[in-house]
Amino acid sequence: MEQTAVFTQYTGHIIPYYPPNSTALTSAPFGTRIKKTFQMAVAALIVGGIIAAIGQGVGWAWLFWTGIGIGGLIFIAGMYTVFTLRLGTCPFCHQEVGRNSDMNLSSGDENSQVECHVCCSWLISDKNSLRAYTAQDVKEDTEFKCKVMNQSTWPNECLVCGAPPVRYIELKNTNLNATSLLVGRVSVSWGSLKNAPYCAIHDDAVKLKIEDKEMFLKFNDYDTMKRYQHVNYHKLMTGQHL
Prior knowledge:
Blueprint: E1 23-24, E2 26-27, H1 30-58, H2 61-83, E3 85-89, E4 96-97, E5 105-106, E6 112-115, E7 122-125, E8 129-132, E9 145-147, E10 167-177, H3 178-182, E11 187-198, E12 206-211, E13 214-219, H4 222-238
Antiparallel strand pairs: 1-8, 2-3, 3-4, 3-5, 6-7, 7-8, 9-13, 10-11, 12-13
């Protein structure tokens, strides 16, 4: 039997804020470039060095030189990143983006998705500017995943439809680290997040994930995620709960 998708109309009160203007990217200062250069050199040394060491250990000259070449390519690509490195200002919370985070902003970015490390808002880096990510930027393969903010909160309504909540579900995740198993250790990361609100009809709109010891929420759709982000953005900027 053929199934058809059911459209759920949102009837809640949360209207996410989108900054009307973009912010300009500026050239990264010398100290930031030095730090990024060091990071790229370390990455090239680790990746290329491991491959080269394996090649030398087993006596495969081709693998040794492959490792050297890969390390060199990583470093060259890293130098291009450093040369085009930029810093920006988040249009939402007005905090600096790109200096201390793992994310690199570049003058060559074209509609690249990034995330503010302070308010966790999704942004688009494009042609030396930062703007808000909107529904028009969603692609077919977009994963609606965002970090769990410190002291994060849920909206006071069903996550899916906005109706008054009647159930509160605890999200749980346990992540077994397979890499640790290979070296004889068992490493388990676990986390939970309480009180995800739902009406009597809806559930399972969001799941908790753990990656690199950080907690993320993975939503089923963009609108649900954006409402969660807006509630926490509003709390961060005003101290008030929606």
